[in-house]
Amino acid sequence: MTGPLKKVIIVGAGPSGLLLALRLAQQHIKVTIFEATPAPSDQPRATHYGIPAVWELRRAGVLEEMRKDPECFQFDVMCWRKLDGTYLSGMDTRDLNRPGKPYDDRITVLTLNKVIKVLGEMVAKCEDATVKYGYKVLAGVEQDEEKAWVTVQSQDGTVEKHWADYIVGCDGASSQIRRSLFGDMEFPGYTWDHQIVATNTYYDFHKYGWEDSNFIVHPEHSFMAARIGATEPLWRVTYTEVNGLTNEEILARQAKKFEIMLPGHPKPGDYKVILTSPYKIHQRCATSFRVGRYLLAADAAHLCNPFGGLGLTGGIVDVGGLADCLIGIHQGKTSDKILDEYSRVRIEKYKTIIDPISSENFRRLWDQDPEKALEKDEFLKLLKNNEGNVELSSQMQLGSLGILHDFSASFDGNKPAGSLSEKRFQSKL
Ligand SMILES: Cc1cc2nc3c(=O)[nH]c(=O)nc-3n(C[C@H](O)[C@H](O)[C@H](O)COP(=O)(O)OP(=O)(O)OC[C@H]3O[C@@H](n4cnc5c(N)ncnc54)[C@H](O)[C@@H]3O)c2cc1C
Questions:
Q1: DSSP string computed for 282-340
Q2: Upper half-sphere CA count for residue 290 (Cβ side, 13 Å)
Q3: What tens digit of pLDDT does each residue of 27-67 get?
Q4: For a pLDDT cut of 90, what percent of the chain falls above it?
Q5: 52 lines ligand 1 (CB under 6 A)
Q6: 20 to 30 Å CA-CA from 207: which of 27, 314, 367, 402?
Q7: Tens digits of residue pLDDT in 367-393
Q8: Does residue 41 line the site of ligand 1, with CB under 6 A?
Q9: CA distances from residue 79 to 92, 275, 371 in whole angstroms, order as listed
């Protein structure tokens, strides 16, 4: 099918669903989001958006709005340390922004609830987008040559059926759309043996000479401490915990963990934890991101652990590519076969880049002897041996652009789409 789309339904008003709605509505494609919860989520999840995500957020006009929030910033240095705080090696993101070679799309920090707020406000201003909170999409798949349907239940129990040209599952890790398409248990991959506990904590790590983002290598007490407040000492402290603990047990152990982990070995009262949330973490990818008129994107399609910030970054890149494909179909520039390409390429990007790199980032923290990390860990060794090498540091950081893909390069049907180089994406800014 090619030609004007009458309507797209998106399931889920998380960051990926809202961004997709925004991109489509900006091109006057009518879009409705059904969101199960009555209001946007406030859970402590994403905070750091990688360079490819920043590129996507910029071209949708979102980055500019995010930057109006005084707490939004670009962080400077990420590093790896031993539990006693000893610096192992690191990377300076300012290497990307040099005189004569300015680069404004460095990793950007803003808590997800604020990004969702920005996206929600932008979508609300679009005439062609409607967000319906308190509408849960129920199990079921129904489609024919022209349309697909979803059944939704509103909070008062009313059940309605809605149709669209395409239905996109942006409904997160437990995606109903994915389960309806493939079955409740079919999400290939695995769950890690460690669970993680994410906290938002007021504590002055800078006082101890710590960098903006610190990854602590230790078999038992690995954690990340990353600044998430631009004007206040608010930090994301995310630590690994043994699986199987109840929430009460996690909270009961937290003071002791913080005393062991944090620089200065603080007691409760020396810091203030304002949010704690345990998460099971997974590496999983759906077998296809397209079944006819149903599509999947972001967490509904694939999951990875959050160390290295590739989760939503990968999801935002899915959404950018999918929006390009749907807009291309709408404008008659390509056929719906491009959606098979979307599925194929995004799965390949997950399997060849996102899954291996995020897994390595996580294992690096607890699956090695911190005393031998600088001898045995090739990545940390590379960073250590090239301290001050601005060119290499820039190249390594821009390597993350490899998860982007320009689907519009296939629109004429002649040439296969290729992974875009940083230069080509830069030229699109
Ligand atoms: C501790 C932690 C830290 C993280 N940090 C980072 C980071 O720094 N950088 C990064 O890139 N990623 C990070 N991530 C990952 C990131 O938060 C997720 O990838 C992202 O939130 C996924 O967005 P989404 O829109 O796909 O799904 P969600 O945010 O899960 O949104 C899905 C929405 O769909 C709705 N929904 C579900 N089922 C239905 C239904 N049946 N009907 C209607 N609506 C439905 C839900 O209510 C929800 O609002 C982190 C994750 C965790 C857990």
A1: EEEE-S-SEETTEEE-GGGTEE--STTS-HHHHHHHHHHHHHHHHHHHHTTSS-TTHHH
A2: 19
A3: 999 999 999 999 988 777 899 999 999 999 999 999 999 99
A4: 90
A5: no
A6: 367
A7: 999 999 999 999 999 999 999 999 999
A8: yes
A9: 9, 24, 16
What band does 413 get if pLDDT is binned at 50, 70 and 90?
low
Residue-range domains of the chain with CATH: 8-188+283-428 (3.50.50.60)
User: Mutate which of 312, 318, 357 to test ligand 1's pocket (most atoms within 8 Å of Cβ)?
Assistant: 312
- For the Cβ of 152 lying below 6 angstroms from any atom of ligand 1, the answer is no
Residue 426 CA: distances (Å) to CA of 53, 104, 105? 13, 11, 10
Which residue's C-alpha comes closest to atom 20 of ligand 1? 312
* pLDDT value of position 101: 83
What would the two tokens of residue 96 be? 């990307």
Planar angle of CA 11, 137, 129, nearest 5 degrees: 40
Q: Judge contact between 286 and 302, C-beta under 8 A.
A: yes
Q: How far apart are the C-alpha atoms of 103 and 59, rounded to whole Å? A: 15
Tell me if 171 CB under 6 Å of ligand 1.
Answer: yes
Tokens of 64: 């500019």
pLDDT tens for 81-104 read: 999 999 999 999 999 988 888 888
CA of 313 to the centre of ligand 1 (A): 11
CA of 301 to the centre of ligand 1 (A): 11
Q: Structure tokens of 90?
A: 């690191």
Residue type, 299: D
Torsion of CA 286, 290, 295, 297, to 10 degrees: 40
> What is the residue whose two structure tokens read 């506990």?
197
Q: Tell me which of 43, 45, 238, 281 to substitute to probe ligand 1's pocket, judged by most ligand atoms within 8 Å of the beta carbon.
A: 45
Q: What angle do CA 327, 328, 331 make, to 5 degrees?
A: 80
Neighbours of 285 (CB within 10 A): 20
In single-letter form, the type of residue at position 378 comes to: E
Q: Which residue's CA is the nearest one to ligand 1's atom 30? A: 172
